[in-house]
Write a structure and sequence with these properties.
- The protein has a single domain, classed as Alpha/Beta hydrolase fold, catalytic domain (Rossmann fold).
- Helix 2 packs across helix 3, helix 4 packs antiparallel against helix 7 and helix 5 runs antiparallel to helix 6.
- It is of the alpha/beta class.
């Protein structure tokens, strides 16, 4: 494993940003802070880490992003928690350790599971919930198999595939330089071996969402979903939005599973407006 802020063996072109590890009442959690203002916990997707969360922090304006590595990712041990509900409690413990009373929370894809549980279990500490292309119930089997295959690749093979995708593929299909830069870092999940335990834990926990009580979410909620998401169907967010009282759903036209980044110019103002409204209420 690379040292904090160091260059990873299979990620030689990019410097991993500095992070911290803090001992909470629910175990060790790796995190990094970005920006100033009211706090927002940033829960990365399956396969990500705090470094992916820092890309999400760039969507925020006037808020402090708390980018975490969820259980099993990078330097947060999988032993810290074993379920989305316990991960939600770990977020509350992290806030205690940072002397932060409240924090909104944004959950992307697999990070949506623990984000939803944080809003459910700690509503007094959660002024707002944002779910983006989130796992709100067990994903389709085809999506699970895609993730499993990617997670089983040797580090060297995964690094080569990533290099081709982010330095050749994105150059051909994404013309906007800023968007391309963000997406390169967003997809830089190497080495996979440092995230493998987290992916396996995510996949083992997805059925925890099948009986989730969405009707009991009483914090302001914004759902964002790309209508071209090939991993998590749009219908998942549509169903959750129907069940959560007064939830708002934004459908990103032409957006895939990474629409928060690929369409950041569209979604960033929506997220900031929503969070600002809740912070002032």
């Amino acid at each position: 494993m690379a040292p904090p802020g160091g260059v990873s063996l299979y990620n030689p072109f990019m410097q991993r940003p500095p992070s911290q590890i803090i001992q909470t009442s629910h175990g060790e959690i790796e995190f990094a802070l970005h920006g100033e203002g009211a706090a927002v916990i940033l829960c990365h997707s399956t396969g990500g880490g705090y470094d992916q969360g820092l890309i999400l922090a760039r969507l925020l304006n006037g808020f402090q992003g708390i980018a975490v590595s969820r259980a099993g990712y990078l330097r947060t041990p999988v032993s810290t928690v074993s379920s989305p509900a316990k991960m939600a409690d770990a977020y509350a413990a992290l806030l205690d350790s940072l002397n932060i009373e409240k924090a909104a929370i944004l959950g992307l894809s697999g990070g949506g599971m623990s984000a939803a549980y944080f809003a459910l279990r700690h509503p007094d500490r959660c002024p707002a919930l944002v779910l983006a292309d989130a796992i709100t119930k067990a994903p389709p089997n085809a999506s699970v198999k895609i993730v499993q295959r990617a997670n089983s690749l040797p580090d060297g093979v995964a690094w080569l595939v990533t290099r081709l995708a982010v330095h050749v593929g994105l150059l051909l299909v994404v013309r906007d330089v800023e968007t391309r830069s963000m997406m390169r870092v967003f997809f830089e999940n190497n080495p996979i071996s440092e995230r493998r335990a987290g992916v396996r834990n995510d996949l083992a926990q997805v059925h925890a969402m099948d009986d989730f009580k969405w009707e009991n979410i009483h914090v302001p909620t914004l759902l964002i979903h790309g209508d071209k998401d090939n991993l998590i169907p749009l219908e998942y967010s549509q169903e959750a939005a129907r069940r959560i009282p007064n939830a708002e759903l934004v459908v990103v036209k032409g957006g895939g599973h990474e629409c928060l980044v690929s369409h950041h110019r569209q979604v960033s103002p929506i997220i900031n407006s929503f969070l600002a409204k809740q912070a002032s209420s």
